[in-house]
Amino acid sequence: MSSFNIQSAGELGDYLDSCWATWNSSFSKLEVLRTISASISPEYTELKDIVGLEHLLLGLYFDGSEVRSGVVATTTEGETVSSPGLENLNPRAFEYIEFRAASSTNHFLKARYALLLWNAPKPYKNGRFGKFAFDELLAALSIADCVGEAQHDCVEALDTLCALSELFRHRPGEIVHELISRIDARSPFWLGGRVFLAQMVVKYNKLFNKNVADETWLQACANLFEECLASNEFHLCDELGNAAIALAQRNNISPKDWYQRLGQSHEAQAASRLDDESGLAPLELYRLALEHYRHTDDDDAIERVSQRLMELKPKIRLNTVTTKLSNEHAQQLHADIQQNTSQVLSMNSDEIYYYLTASKAVIPSLTQLREQTANEKDSLSAILGTTFMDGNKNTQRGASEPGAAFHQRVMRNYGMNMSFRLLYLRPIFIEGTASGKLSYESLRGYLESSWVSSSLREIDTAGVPLDYSWADLVYPSLREFFLQLGSSLKEGIEPSFVMCLDSLTVKFEGLLRDFARHAGINTTVVGRHDDLREMYVDEILEQPKIQSLFDEDCLVFFKYVFLSSGKNIRNDVAHCFYRHLNQYSLDKMILVICAFLRLAGFEFNSEAVTTA
Asked: Which domain of life is it from (predicted)?
């Protein structure tokens, strides 16, 4: 019988039974079905319909015990569409599936037809089909080519068997044996597939918890891990180690040994990547090794890897990416900046400071940035993940959760947007200072009516009231800023913003804490050792009442200037990470002053805190 001369449903069934040898891998057979359909004479309409039905059924695939559409695509309008599924079938189609489940002589096909019926709508859905599918698929697995081209297909078949056994509590001992014998290599199976199977033990925890001793399984995984490490299959080590840690923690077994193994794997991988030109690969891998070793008692490993990280940091080399504007666009930008500067400096001093305090042109709009980010097409980095590096060459992995990853993309765009706005703010400060519109005296006059200059009171431990004003604490740094900028403009010398940036940055934290207290917001929390401590800046900014007093754009600006989501100036100043004078830049001073002005732009009264 030739596949090009099929003239009945029985011949079609016999042909499929004779050649089908996989669970989910069906592409080559689907091509044959298309050829068969094209070769059938037009008068055989019923046979053509059956071939079309088989093409639909065999194009579906199974994820565990559930059926999925064979083709899923996204239209140009962003709409997700898929090929027809079981919900599109009529009663005659389900009768045909029942017939084939009973009459087929192919274990794979009998299992497929039965599992389709288990996923079918009522009245066709029945638990006996799920158990029948398990029995047939287990029989098919015994004759499957699990060490050849179909090895991935066998992993998917085992996944379905685990799902069905757990769901129906059906023949669990046999499927557990099938997996464990492959994980520990008693039955031949490829290395990557054995790791996939180990992950299934975690995935189907209910099935394996009752049928496998944890220590037995973990020892099998330990042996498998050594094989992966010896083969330099570091990604398999990572997947296997994380699975073992999850199961150990779930069953109250110490995962320290597995953190130790993952540390060794990342350390070995880092050593193999020392020829990386940028130095980023070994730096990130040693960081991961250190992260894992810290969950162990191996102080020597922690010291060794920490030393390697310290040695690698000076060797980091990153390429610089620049975007050059055309002469026409550069001239347009320059003209726009000049026009904006002229408009702002045409105001009087108080109006300029109020512009810096309250204008929406000074800081980005988070709503607009979210819309912009949402409309961006996903880049390769969004698929592969991202590692961030701060100014001190410390790395941090990008968030994997969709919401957190989106926020990181928003903040990346925020930083670029703020850098663009600094092009407009910089000449306002420079030309404003040169013309005398901006000065320490005029800024002090502007602040005289703010809460920063008002007299505040606190009670000491002896019950004695103490009066103080933040003006005495912040004015010296503002005076130093204008002194340095003015001298630089007049004499052409390099300004030093060290004292003013250090002082005003630290004072901002104190101002924010005092502001919160006077607004009736608690700033004290219980620390890790059950001791009372003051909240950190990020914790204060997350307080609901603080978020009700400031608009979202202002709060995000504070976080961008002072915290790790942006410039992280507060951390870098507090820990003395700025070691070069050019790190104490005019741009950083502008950001801190604008943040200070927005915080100062509130006033206290006897009942509440209100905007000035």
From this structure: Bacteria
